[in-house]
């Protein structure tokens, strides 16, 4: 059976880099990327894929910034030393025979979502996403598997429900309701994970919640009605874009162990 391994590249690189308390420097970047390279090798050796997609954020504005100017406002930029070292890191990965994908105006999440859903829709086999990013966990609803490289554990339907109180297919609606401080996605005022999960268990989705909010006489109903526009904008921001023109074929992603 064919196996696709989609690697959220910067999810690994940034976690490894930030694990070191040392101040930013070219030496710190070099050491972190050496460890990240070992992580990539370990992922490939453990999962034995037939195809590998190493996806990286390109940097700069994306379609989400065009939709909402405040997107990721306040997030610290990638250290200049690390960004300067990335091209050489990509070259090393490509030297293994991997095809690095990094596209302007979209995020690595969108590239992974597009490729994984296409792979599964075509019935090509298993799809594993190596990431700790919650935004990619909705892919579990379509049959993908999520692997946390740092904890060495699988995330499945049951894991998502334990963590968030909703199944994977409802995760984008939950994130839209509660917002995401990491990406400066506003959500609805004073709605946290527990309230968002309770609303979704009761109503099922955002449209049904908003239909019910029309008759709620409490503060929550008033807030939902008042912030309806921002809620639906937040839903667009957390939703994966799954029609990206990736520009690679399955043959380009095929992995032949050197």
TrEMBL record:
It comes from the Bacteria. Keywords: DNA-binding, Exonuclease, Hydrolase, Nuclease. InterPro entries: 5-3_exonucl_a-hlix_arch_N, 5-3_exonuclease, 5-3_exonuclease_C_sf, DNA_polI_H3TH, FEN, HhH2, PIN-like_dom_sf. Pfam families: 5_3_exonuc, 5_3_exonuc_N. Residues 2-256 form the 5'-3' exonuclease domain. The keyword Hydrolase applies. SMART domains: 53EXOc (SM00475), HhH2 (SM00279). One of its GO terms (molecular function) is DNA binding. One of its GO terms (biological process) is DNA replication, Okazaki fragment processing. This is 5'-3' exonuclease. It comes from Rugamonas apoptosis.
């Amino acid at each position: 059976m064919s196996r696709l391994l989609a690697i959220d590249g910067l999810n690994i690189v940034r976690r490894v880099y930030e694990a070191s308390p040392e101040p930013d420097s070219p030496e710190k970047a070099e050491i972190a990327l050496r460890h990240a390279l070992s992580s990539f090798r370990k992922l490939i050796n453990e999962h034995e894929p037939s195809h590998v997609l190493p996806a990286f954020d390109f940097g700069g504005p994306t379609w989400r910034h065009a939709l909402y100017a405040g997107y990721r406002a306040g997030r610290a930029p990638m250290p200049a030393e690390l960004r300067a070292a990335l091209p050489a890191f990509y070259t090393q990965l490509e030297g293994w025979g991997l095809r690095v994908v990094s596209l302007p105006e979209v995020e690595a999440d969108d590239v992974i979502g597009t490729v994984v859903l296409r792979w599964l829709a075509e019935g090509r086999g298993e799809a594993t996403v190596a990431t700790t990013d919650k935004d990619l966990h909705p892919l579990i609803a379509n049959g993908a598997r999520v692997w946390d490289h740092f904890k060495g554990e699988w995330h499945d339907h049951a894991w998502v429900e334990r963590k968030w109180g909703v199944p994977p297919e409802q995760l984008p609606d939950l994130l839209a309701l509660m917002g995401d401080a990491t990406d400066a996605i506003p959500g609805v005022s004073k709605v946290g994970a527990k309230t968002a999960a309770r609303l979704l268990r009761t109503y099922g989705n955002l449209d049904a919640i908003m239909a019910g909010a029309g008759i709620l006489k409490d503060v929550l109903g008033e807030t939902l009605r008042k912030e309806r526009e921002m809620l639906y904008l937040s839903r667009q921001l957390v939703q994966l874009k799954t029609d990206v023109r990736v520009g690679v074929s399955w043959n380009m992603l095929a992995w032949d162990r050197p």
